[in-house]
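In response to reviewer comment 3 from the previous cycle, which asked for concrete evidence that the modeling workflow produces usable outputs, we include below a single protein chain processed end to end. The sequence was submitted unchanged, and the resulting structure tokens are shown without manual editing.
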Amino acid sequence: MKISKKVFLYTALTTFLSGILIISYFVVMLPGLYADFKNERLLKGITDIQANNVANIGCASTQTDTFMAASINLPKSGDSIKLCTPFISTDIEVNHPDLVEFVNTFKIALDDAITNQNESAFKDIDFSKIEAIFQSQNMDGLFTLTNSAFTNSFDMDPHPIIRTKQSEDGSTIISSQVKDANNDYTSYVAFNQDSDSFYLTFASAMTPKLNELTPIVLASTPMILAFLVLFTLVAAHYFSKFLAKPIETLASQATNRHADTDIVFKQSHQDDEFKILEDALNQMHQEIMKSIHSLTDKNAQLELEKERQKLLMMNISHQLKTPLSSASLMVEGMIAKIGNLVNTDQYLPKVKQELNHITVMLESMLLVFDDLNSEIKHETLDLRPLINNMVGQIQNHTEIKSISVQTNLKDVSLYTDVFILTSIIENMLTNAYKYTDLNGSIEIILGENSLTVENSPAFIPQSILEHIAEPFVRNVHSDESGSGLGLYIVDSFVLLLGMQWKIENTSNGVKTTLLFRKDI
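The workflow returned the following structure tokens.
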């Protein structure tokens, strides 16, 4: 369900419940409130009438908008009585002796009741004589009416609404409205007849006033408003929490999300726009993480390329020393006419061969630097002729030190990077002849899965062997000079090719083993 529909339903439900509560309030509370209000009005009305009676304001005050009353002014002396009603006022002169006696007795009891708060003041009054007088149905001479006058009159509506209705017994009922100064009345006349008589009934009822409810409603307004405000605040609080919870959940998940999780954002609303937002955030997270992984891989590749470039520089500079030192050694020997080196016709071609080797290496170096940003290039390489060629290249060095070289080479082909693998093998052979004593030996064994170069006599102290793959580590006890980078380059290049290698002391020498991966 969309959020707009949820808001609509919330608004409709809140309005409906508010209406139900207001209606329930008036249904339950209004009758009681109206009764209390009416009782208060009646009490106030009789209080005002009595106050006017005491103040002798007049008989017109006996009519209010609540009811009609009659007031009696009973003088403490004399036999007259002042009677006031809303429509007539008169003085009643009591003539009958028994009535005079009764009135005087009533005055005494009334005075006792008012003055002494005596609730039993009227118990001793004898009403039997009065009852006998009125039951005799002889009213002559009982009292005399004087000063009689009408005090009020009804006003007929010039355009009255007259309704006629026929009852079940055949009577005709006619209703019409009249009013006085304070109230409206509905008058009814019902009549019927039979063979013997006419039947007439007269009635008058006070018409209820709608404005009587206004004070009750106004008095109830503060409580209704307070309740509505409280109800609205409570409903808005829970509905706002209902709508805000998914946002708060997503915000918390965004702050504490885990990079290794594809689904990071999850909230409880799965049927509205929050689900769309959740899916969009998860997709964005996945795309961001994908971009981060891609950048990380590229950075790692750049670091690897940077390391490779560094290794290439060190390897090339390291390898250039071998032919340069060889050519320099032969030239110095020929200049000094040492031993067989006096035969320049024999050794000058070898010097040229070393210089050509340097030229080839420089050209290879230029080719490598032209393609430093490319990936490792794999091609098929036959190891046996490669190793035989390398053995020939170090022959001058081995002859000078009278080192014998023995080979046991199988026909092995690898699908690998030619330049890097060539650099590894050259460093292995260079280290072998450089750190072999005079009249020593070098044994080269090429198998299906490994290349082993063992030179003797030779020895690497254990303290150096533990750090042999680190840069600039070399045997300070050896007479050979070096940069300490040969085996570091081997270790780094082996890692680039995904191979393994190890170096260890044997009973009489040092054995270096290259365990390569062969792709068939």
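The first strand starts at residue 71 and ends at 73. We consider this sufficient to address the reviewer's concern, and the full set will be provided in the supplementary archive.
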